[in-house]
Amino acid sequence: MNVFKSLILIIFVSFSVQAKTVSEKFERNNFDEAKKSTPYLKFTGTSTKFGFVSTDFDGYAKNFELSYDFDQKTQTLQSISLTILTISLDTDNSSRNEKLHTKCLAENESKKIIAEAIAPIKLQIGEKQETSIKMIANKKEILIPLTYSVIKTNEGFQIILNGHFSFKDAGITDPSIAIAKLEEKIRIEGVINLK
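Request: output the structure for the sequence above.
Response:
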């Protein structure tokens, strides 16, 4: 019986060394702090005024939570989940922010955007890889394709994410007005540090 208990203990200790669960919260006070901070989550939209003058605008998530399991043996991230407070989405423009919070995301009863990876992320240095995340914003679930690359740092790893999605597919209300139309594609970018 003692041998059996020892074996169970060894297996448990071995697993706990190989895999760890990480949960981190990030809070920024304003747009500029979110813009200068790492990790960050950024979105970019394009507005066209009078049908021919197009300008980009950036927005950042000031408050978000990231959790994942890191399997050290296989060098993969698993069970990745990201939660963003909708009220923390900031475009550095008060009228645009108000429209974002009270019109575009008005049907979001949870006041959160939730994104989950549908497959483990392999930490292969330097190679551009592809994955998809499942996102829920306004009671609607969509898949968003992403590309990502991994950089080795002194502290661990850095993951750089890029992708885009249709706000209409995501069930987000179109904020366009007669003189200014928002292009349907929203680009997303993020940098995550792993220690």
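The two ends are 39 Å apart (CA to CA).
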